[in-house]
Design brief:
heterotetramer, A alpha/beta, B mainly alpha, C mainly alpha, D alpha+beta, A: 24% strand, D: alpha+beta, 34% helix
């Protein structure tokens, strides 16, 4: 059992564009047997720190420029490659974020779990296999006995992550580095994995460096928290202290800008508010409250009746019921939130409503018209009124069109605006409306950040002056601070334009924040639906309850 | 890992750089590709303006000057009929490069359209179209060309249209796979949600994004076609005399390697050089156009 | 998986049918006939010859007859090598092409794989540039240049190896080297690209995090994924090696199938052309199936999709 | 990270090195041949048939003359008839009846005696219409042969001039006096076949039966068929039953159907071949300088010429044909382009063909050519001839000649010629359809008599294809055939040649020379006009330079 002391670590990337100071002079320590959480948003340098410890960074371009990492009295930065090889996997193990790409698709799971023992000659081949099976059972891969020859792709995401944990812990390492180990998982699975990790590490006596962007998750597991921001450590403290009395404005902001169950449905604060950087359109924000929807025809503006969408799987020929007999109504000017885990059919539902996916049975009515029967010109008009915003703002914009082109095109197609000039003017005002500098409109999408791109997507969706927008996980891939900005933007637009949203997300907190009504989906069916407030505070179904309970408590309440 | 928000905030103020421009910058810093590009430009220049510097015609015979080695008079020497090899090599370059380009364009035209339609329409149409491609793939290729040769034998250009018509199979497969990927991309979904017509989506959104792989494959097809032309020359199925292509010159030279080595040296050098360059440019383009490519 | 292969085999039947039909009519519409020669043949003799081979029937009847015989497994008699059946000729020539192809493939793999791996592991060093440069030369050099050069060096000058023929095992070396080097170059480039791609993968990083040595990383983790593109290439490559070797066969005077085909095409030996085309097509189909098998064996995911 | 590659690299190197060493010691064919007396012969092409009655190629002759023997043999130097299967013969007064006396010890390879009936069987077989023998017309010199061959009459009705007087006496009756009749007998179409063997493998008039395969083939020549691998090798072994087996020194001959001259040369240089079939024209000069002991130039009974299509403009006008012919500098062509010692052709029949030498019908006269062309242009109101297409079949040699002529005509007459090379079968069908204006051609004599050349231009001859026809010519040729003495014959032949020169349906370019490589150890091999080399006189002797 040993502790780790990181002192003045500097890791820079030497790229063609210049030096990126990914980790710039950080100092913290991991006491023996403790779990230290390392928190920061993307680009803060937390993963680089983690990889620097094991010296797994590709060099070039990465270069450790200074500092020391003392592990059991030995400076890892000075250690030779062969020495590092001895340490890796034996004394220091690592769990990576994406268990799919990090497990070798060409080796069986058992083989891979046993491998560290073989590499470090800690067991014979037979013995290693047995130990691996035992370990897998211990981490909860219960069916491993029947699936000794199974490959990673035959496992679910949660099981794969369990296998990763087994692989990391099989050598009983002194230190476990966990790099975003639960980010790719559903909440219910995440909760289980966190519990398991905590329990096992305690049993083995490993210290843990737990890296995550999610303060709530870290609070669940860590004894101490280190917060990083742009390559620097801005604050470190025990978990309790950090939540109770954060000192650094960034940390304060991180805690505050997450939507919670208990928070009210007003605008979320953003990081900029705390850091003294005024965000775009500051004065507009405060005045926004949920405006009343247009009076006429609020009830059942969009009606979904017994909607089913089935897919035939290409090879086996099995029918997958992605959406199974779903009925719901979306009132005009309101937001309906759909919550569900991956594979619950929520995305398909959204696409089916927009007629982007063929419907197997049932129907969708929009203003008392069956959308399946809309043809020709009417279809164009239908498209004009209904828009969608996707999860990944990187993939949602054609990389070969400038922002201006991307925004002009829908207007041309839908004959909005008389002249090109008029349309360009509209582009400018749209960009202003979503909080972007109009001067940037001649640029290409890859020159913008994720949050900015999502704003562009929103602007594009707005360019046809729609009445209804499906937001498909549109903030899920974002850092909390950016997420807050986009959520705020959506609220403002709804207020200003009287939009109707179908807000699809796996994150109950986010949905609760933005939606008026919530429907919980599981395996293609709606499990429970109703008023947002009542669903969250008083869930009726067991599944909804489970979903609630899986959310880290700090995330639910915003306090520790 | 690389940050998005922080980088984005520090975005430079200069005018927008398109992906093409970006790729060009990356290509420029690939030394091999850049050198290849310059060399290829020189080879092309040699083929097209080279004859201006030569006082001989490619088919001008001087039976008293057979098999002369390189000299001041004849820079690359002369061949068995006393024709100037410099003139012939540069003229042959024109033919070989033109043939490569023509056949490649034909294969692109057919392959891209076919693959794009198959990938975009999908379903049964896709299955049927790809089945056809599989059938054609099982047709022994060389054999097909020789049979086409017999049918189109009278016209060289027609022949290479025919070769292009055979070469498109791989292009169709690549295009189809890429289209399938792109079709699922969210920007295509949003284009559909915005009510864009299929034609607009295909030609305005999908096609430009296919350019990368298409260009890469095209640069690799040109040398393949040039090699094929050379192989056909070996069988005597190449260009009509007294025209020459690099392939036919090399074939002639290979037979006289020990008597007149310059006959294979010069055309061979240019042939290999352009193939070399095209391959390196192709590789460079692949790296430059692939956004995932590491920046080291 | 089994069903997949059975259905693929069943699909081959219409494929072969289409190819047979296509080739049949293509050859028949080509100008010239099997009995044209530089000395004029009296008309009545020509008719005799044609009726002997059934060429006097209407074209469509000939086609039906051919198809009927084909179903019975009869490829018909050769027009040029009178007295020989097409299947006899294929039996004679294919083993030659096969052994040439196999040895060329071995050369391609023995040279290409190590060179490509070396280049990938030592990226951007001379260990990369040199083999890749040579590979480029190999790709750019037409076989009818490489062949005579090898003969000049090893047969004419050094007198180490036979210049041509197909009579003892030493005859195999130069042609398979000429044929194999091109493919070696290709394999090297594919291996390099594939290995570079795999070495970038997350699971390779995982392996390193376990403390695996570079050798172990390479052999146990990177190789399988890295060699998949090479395996995919093997099918077409081998088909190319076996069918596309007519230039080599002509330079080295080897009685292989490629030579038979080219001669047959020039002689309008309809049955031999058709027979060889069908044989090649079957071979390609089988090879592609084999490659699929191999891929499935290497890639567990592919195994399941089938 | 380099341990794996090193290993396999060494392995590969080792494998190659082993291969080199193992083959290092093997002596070449030519070296071994001194002891084994096996001749390694470049055949040039794979013969289509080994059935003498169906064969059509030089390659087939080269093999069949080893396997079979006709009534008479050839003198190795002069090709004059010498006793073969027949030990003697008698010619009647009117020179129309030949009586052959077969030798007692003439045997088939299986020991059966060669009988007169065998010859009757053979001649009947080749003349049987249903066999479809291409060279059956060679036997039309026999009395009534034509009427049987055309199917008008049965064998009995026709009473063809072939009769077995007894087992050893064969009488042949001719239609006309044929001075070259005995030479004709050396053509493979006159070779006998073994009747029981033919019958064993199918009907006598069926083509493509397996009797010609090794193991089945029964011949009467100095060698027997031992192995036949298509496109690879045909091997014959000395036949102990042959009546002149004592004279035969070679123990065997291996024929290699190597098609390209360059491959043949490489084979020759590495001691793989004794004799090649051809030499690439570009390499003649080099080989002459470097290896004069290898290269051999032998006159060959053939003419290289171009056909004019006289039915289409511009070659329907004699002036244009003449202009083109007169402006070709044949001497330059032969000396600078072909370099193989060929003779420029100013008539069609090669000199001294069966004693006939035609006088030059024209010469090189570019000025006259220019005048003729200008006159034509003036008549047609043209300033320039439209471009003319010149068809030739794909081959380096034909290409070179065509390119040279193209340049000559451009220079002398300002005519644009477009070269059009065609794949062989396409070429043949194009020419035979008359779909050309100027086309390359060549003619190799089947026997040593001017008739084998001049019959081409008879009206309606299948090989004419120029569209040219001339009654006077036909008459002269018929008179030559019926002439009773050589002098008259030659006068008629000369008349034919003069008509050809004045009407110019063809453009003779040069007379062939057979250029080949031959190893100095090959003995008993003499230059002959038909490139026939009776193998029983050939042997291998001498030091082989390492």
């Amino acid at each position: 059992m040993s502790d780790v002391n990181i002192k003045g670590l500097k890791t820079f990337f030497h790229t063609r564009e210049g030096v990126v100071k990914a980790v710039n002079d950080i100092t913290f320590s991991i006491p023996p047997g403790e779990v230290v959480g390392l928190v920061g948003e993307s680009g803060s340098g937390k993963s680089v720190t983690c990889h620097s410890l094991l010296q797994l960074l590709p060099s070039p371009p990465a270069q450790v420029e200074g500092g020391e990492i003392i592990f059991s009295g030995e400076d890892l930065l000075q250690a030779k490659e062969w020495r590092m090889r001895e340490l890796r996997g034996k004394s220091i193990s690592m769990i990576f974020q994406d268990p799919m790409s990090c497990l070798n698709p060409y080796m069986t799971v058992v083989e891979q779990v046993a491998e560290p023992l073989l590499i470090h000659k800690m067991a014979s081949e037979e013995d290693a296999k047995q130990q691996a099976i035992d370990m897998l059972l211990r981490v909860g891969v219960n069916k491993i006995k029947e699936r000794l020859n199974a490959y990673p792709h035959e496992f679910s995401g949660g099981m794969r992550q369990r296998a990763m944990i087994a692989m990391a812990l099989i050598t009983k390492p002194d230190l476990l580095l966990a790099d975003e180990p639960t980010t790719a998982l559903d909440v219910t699975v995440q909760a289980k994995i966190l519990k398991l990790l905590k329990k096992l590490c305690a049993e083995i006596g490993s210290s843990v460096l737990f890296v995550s962007h999610d303060l709530g998750v870290v609070a669940e597991i860590a004894d101490r928290v280190v917060v990083m921001y742009r390559g620097k450590v801005v604050e470190q403290n025990t978990t309790q202290e950090l939540f109770r009395s954060p000192t650094h404005p960034y940390v304060k902001a991180l805690i505050a800008c997450r939507p919670t169950f208990t928070g009210n449905s007003e605008m979320l604060p953003t990081v900029e508010d705390f850091m003294g950087n005024p965000s775009p359109m500051p004065e507009k924000r405060k005045q926004v409250k949920k405006s009343d929807p247009p009076a006429e025809n609020t009830e059942g503006w969009i009606k979904v009746r017994d909607l089913s969408v089935h897919f035939r799987q290409a090879k086996q020929g099995d029918v997958v019921k992605a959406v199974d007999q779903v009925s719901l109504t979306i009132p005009r000017g309101k937001t309906l939130g759909i919550v569900g885990e991956s594979g619950s059919g929520k995305t398909t539902l959204g696409r089916a409503i927009l007629r982007l996916t063929p419907i197997t049975s049932g129907n969708v009515q929009w203003q008392d018209q069956d959308i399946a029967s809309v043809q020709g010109k009417d279809l164009l008009a239908f498209r004009k009124k209904m828009q969608i915003i996707f999860q990944d703002p990187y993939a949602s914009l054609n990389p070969r069109l400038t922002i201006e082109q991307a925004l002009l095109e829908p207007m041309q197609v839908h004959r909005i605006g008389q002249s090109r000039k008029e349309r360009v003017d509209r582009v400018v005002s749209l960009l202003e409306e979503v909080g972007l500098e109009p001067d940037y409109r001649r640029r290409y999408p890859h020159e913008f950040s994720g949050g900015q791109r999502q704003r562009i997507c929103v602007a594009r969706a707005l360019s046809t002056e729609p009445e209804f927008i499906v937001c498909d996980e549109c903030v899920s891939a974002m850092d909390v601070s950016v997420q807050a900005q986009v959520l705020n933007l959506l609220s403002q637009l709804q207020a200003a334009r009287g939009l109707t949203y179908l807000f699809i997300s796996h994150d109950l907190c986010v949905v609760k924040h933005i939606a008026d009504e919530i429907a919980v989906m599981r395996a293609g069916k709606i499990v429970e639906s109703g008023d947002a407030e009542s669903i969250c505070l008083n869930p009726q179904e067991k599944y909804t309850q489970e979903l609630m309970d899986s959310i880290p408590s700090t995330s639910r309440t915003g306090t520790f | 890992m690389a940050g998005s928000e922080s980088e984005g905030a520090a975005m430079s103020t200069k005018a927008g750089a398109s992906l093409t421009r970006d790729a060009w910058i990356r290509l420029r810093s690939n030394r091999m590709a850049l050198v290849s590009l310059i060399l290829l430009a020189l080879v092309v220049a040699f083929s097209f303006i080279g004859p201006l510097f030569c006082e001989y015609q490619y088919d001008e015979q001087n039976l008293d000057e057979q098999f002369l080695g390189p000299s001041k008079q004849h820079w690359f020497g002369t061949d068995s009929l006393g024709r100037d090899l410099f003139a012939r090599t540069s003229y042959g370059g024109r033919i070989s490069l033109a043939v490569g380009l023509l056949a490649t364009s034909v294969s692109l035209l057919i392959g891209v359209t076919y693959g794009m339609v198959a990938g975009y329409v999908g379903g049964k149409t896709d299955a049927f179209l790809m089945r056809m491609v599989d059938i054609l793939y099982s047709l022994p290729f060389t054999i097909f060309v020789i049979l086409l040769m017999v049918l189109f034998g009278r016209n060289f250009l027609l022949l290479f249209l025919a070769i292009g018509a055979v070469e498109w199979l791989t292009m169709a497969r690549i295009t189809r796979a890429q289209t399938l990927n792109l079709k699922r991309a969210e920007f295509i979904e949003s284009a559909r949600a915005l009510g864009f017509s299929h034609a607009r989506i295909l030609f305005h959104h999908i096609l430009p994004n296919l350019l990368g792989p298409i260009i890469v494959y095209a640069t690799l097809t040109v040398p393949a076609v040039m090699l094929l032309e050379a192989a056909l020359s070996f069988l005597g199925l190449g260009v009509q005399a007294p025209m020459a292509s690099w392939g036919s010159l090399i074939k002639e030279g290979a037979e006289k390697m020990d008597i007149a080595p310059w006959l294979i040296l010069f055309p061979g050098l240019f042939f290999c050089l352009s193939l070399f360059c095209l391959n390196f440019i192709g590789d460079g383009l692949r790296d430059a156009l692939d956004p995932k490519s590491s920046k080291d | 998986m089994k069903n997949f292969f059975i259905s693929r085999l069943l699909q081959a039947i219409p494929t072969l049918f289409v190819i047979a039909t296509l080739t049949f009519f293509m050859t028949r519409f080509a100008p010239g006939g099997p009995f044209d020669s530089d000395k004029a043949i009296p008309e009545e003799i020509k008719i005799k010859l044609q009726s002997h081979f059934g060429l006097n029937l209407p074209l469509f009847d000939q086609y039906l007859l051919y198809m009927k015989n084909l179903l019975a497994g009869d490829l018909g008699p050769s027009f040029k090598y009178v007295g020989w059946d097409v299947s006899e000729l294929i039996q004679l020539a294919f083993p030659v092409s096969l052994s040439l192809g196999v040895s060329a493939l071995l050369i391609a793999l023995l040279i290409g794989l190590p060179a490509g791996m070396l280049a990938a592991l030592r990226k951007n060093t001379w260990w990369d540039y040199l083999p890749m440069g040579i590979a480029m030369v190999g790709i750019c050099l037409p076989s009818f240049v490489l062949g005579p050069i090898l003969i000049m060096v090893f047969a004419t000058k050094l007198k180490l190896l036979p210049a041509l023929g197909w009579y003892s095992w030493t005859d195999l070396i130069l042609p398979s080297l000429t044929l194999g080097l091109f493919y070696a170059a290709y394999v090297a480039r594919l291996t390099r690209a594939g290995m570079l791609e795999t070495l970038k993968q997350d699971y390779v990083r995982t392996a390193r995090a376990k403390g695996a040595s570079p050798g172990r990383v390479l052999v146990k983790h990177a190789m399988r994924g890295g060699l998949l593109p090479v395996v995919t290439y093997l099918g077409p490559a081998f088909a190319g090696l076996v069918s596309g070797s007519f230039i080599i066969e002509s330079i080295f005077f080897i009685p292989g199938l490629g030579k038979f085909f080219v001669t047959a095409a020039f002689n309008r030996d309809y049955t031999v052309v058709l027979g060889t085309v069908l044989f090649y097509a079957t071979l390609i189909i089988i090879l592609n199936l084999l490659v699929d098998f191999l891929q499935a064996w290497l890639d567990p995911k592919a195994r399941e999709q089938r | 990270m380099h341990f794996i590659r090193k290993k396999s690299f060494h392995f590969a190197c080792g494998l190659l090195a082993f291969g080199f060493l193992a083959s290092c010691t093997a002596p070449s064919n030519v070296e071994k041949a001194l002891d084994e007396q096996i001749l390694h012969f470049g055949l040039g092409a794979e013969p289509q048939h080994l059935d003498p009655h169906l064969a059509t190629s030089v390659a087939a002759h080269n093999i069949l003359s080893a396997l079979l023997e006709g009534l008479v043999g050839e003198d190795p130097k002069t090709l004059k008839p010498v006793p073969g299967a027949a030990e003697s013969w008698k010619i009647s007064e009117d020179k129309k009846t030949y009586t052959f006396y077969l030798r007692k010890n003439a045997k088939w390879h299986n020991g059966d005696p060669v009988t007169a009936q065998d010859f009757v069987y053979s001649y009947r077989r080749i003349l049987t219409p249903s066999l479809g023998a291409q060279y059956a017309s060679m036997l039309h010199v026999l009395k009534n042969a034509k009427s049987y061959h055309s199917g008008e009459k049965t064998w009995k009705e026709a009473n063809v001039g072939v009769q077995a007087i007894d087992e050893r006496t064969l009488e042949l009756v001719l239609e006309n006096q044929t001075p070259y009749f005995l030479e004709l007998l050396n053509h493979y179409s006159w070779f006998p076949v073994h009747p029981p063997t033919i019958e064993k493998f199918g009907a006598s008039e069926k083509m493509g039966t397996p009797w010609t395969k090794p193991g089945n083939f029964v011949g009467n020549g100095p060698f027997s068929l031992r192995e036949h691998r298509i496109n690879s090798v045909i091997e014959v072994r000395a036949n102990p039953h042959y009546w002149d087996a004592n004279l035969t020194q070679l123990s065997g001959i291996r024929f290699y159907p190597i098609e390209t001259a360059d491959t043949e040369e490489r084979a020759f240089r590495t001691g793989f071949l004794h004799v090649t079939q051809s030499v690439s024209s570009d390499r003649i000069e080099y080989l002459q300088n470097k290896h004069p002991e290898w290269i051999h130039f032998e006159p060959y009974l053939g003419t290289y010429y171009y056909r004019f299509n006289v039915e289409a403009p511009p070659f329907d006008d004699l002036r244009v044909r003449k202009a083109l012919s007169l402006s070709v500098n044949r001497k330059l062509l032969v000396e600078k382009v072909l370099k193989g010692g060929q003779l420029p052709a100013y008539c069609f029949t090669p000199p001294d063909t069966g004693g006939f030498t035609a006088s030059d019908g024209f010469g090189y006269d570019p000025d006259q050519a220019k005048k003729l062309l200008n006159a034509y242009l003036k008549d047609h109101g043209l300033t320039k001839l439209p471009p003319i297409e010149l068809n030739y079949n794909t081959s380096e040699g034909h290409k070179k000649v065509a390119e040279a002529l193209q340049a000559m005509w451009k220079k002398a007459l300002g005519i644009e010629i477009q070269l059009l090379n065609m794949e062989w079968k396409v070429f043949l069908s194009t020419i035979s359809k008359g779909d050309y204006s100027l086309a390359r051609a060549g003619w190799i004599g089947d026997y040593v008599d001017a008739n084998t050349f001049l019959h081409l231009w008879r009206s309606g001859d299948g090989n004419n294809l120029t569209g040219w026809s001339n009654k006077e010519y036909d008459q002269a040729l018929t008179q030559a055939e019926r002439a009773l003495n050589p002098k008259d014959r030659f006068t008629h032949f000369q008349k034919c040649e003069e008509l050809l020169a004045s009407e110019m349906p063809i453009l003779p370019l040069y007379f062939y020379v057979h250029v080949s490589l031959r190893h100095p150890s090959v003995q008993g091999w003499y230059p002959t006009l038909l490139d026939h080399h009776p193998y029983k006189y050939v042997y291998l002797k001498g030091e082989v330079a390492k």
